Amino acid sequence: MKKILLVISGGIAAYKSLELIRLFKKAGDEVKCVATESALTFITSASIEYLSGNPLRTSLDDREQEMKMGHIELARWPDIILVAPATANIISSVANGLATDLAQTILMATTKKMVFAPSMNVRMWENKLFQNNVAILKSNNVEFLGPTEGEMACGEFGLGRMMEPQQIVKSLIKK
Ligand SMILES: Cc1cc2nc3c(=O)[nH]c(=O)nc-3n(C[C@H](O)[C@H](O)[C@H](O)COP(=O)(O)O)c2cc1C
Predict the structure, then answer these.
(1) What is the CATH number of the domain that holds 124?
(2) Which residue from 87, 134, 159 has its CB within 8 A of the most atoms of ligand 1, so it is best to mutate?
(3) Number of domain units in the chain
(4) Is residue 174's pLDDT more than 80?
(5) Which atom of ligand 1 is nearest to the CA of 88?
(6) SS3 state at 43
(7) In terms of Cα–Cα distance, which of 82, 87, 85, 90 is closest to 14?
(8) Taking the mean position of all CA atoms in its chain, how far away is CA 117?
(9) What are the pLDDT digits (tens) for 9-20?
(10) Which of 24, 58, 83, 120 matches a 20 to 30 Å C-alpha distance to 38?
């Protein structure tokens, strides 16, 4: 049994994070979730909490949790932190050492294995400035699963689709 901290950021593939939670739980893993403000415009906190069986954290402005330094507890807790879907914004923020919300702060404060499953438009993924940020993370032992190639919600075709949940869970089971 692994302890997975699933960080859900605000992309169109956020619905796939619900399937990820279900599959991790089926595999016997414990799952805690953190969602960005943007992620909650795509999926509901209720779905995340009912599927994971744990309260969702979304903000640093949470007196009860943060009186005991909840963000540091969450940064220490997991065996693996999986960011899925990982937006261009969260990837670039972490690559540049930013900590402007709960999700980014945890990612900055952790020493645990970090895995990103990016999801974005193909032009965003191929953007040279953005790829510099991906390279920074890769050279610092951050693992990337995907993106894969295919048709996108915006109607374009190319690299940028989030890897399917089943494939992600299969890759992480080996770790
Ligand atoms: C309909 C819609 C779909 C979006 N899909 C994506 C996406 O797939 N990937 C991405 O990087 N950003 C996407 N964005 C932009 C992000 O939501 C935006 O950059 C946001 O600030 C990300 O915040 P977060 O990284 O804190 O979750 C989308 C925005 C909208 C309105």
Answers:
(1) 3.40.50.1950
(2) 87
(3) 1
(4) no
(5) 11
(6) coil
(7) 85
(8) 7
(9) 999 999 999 999
(10) 24
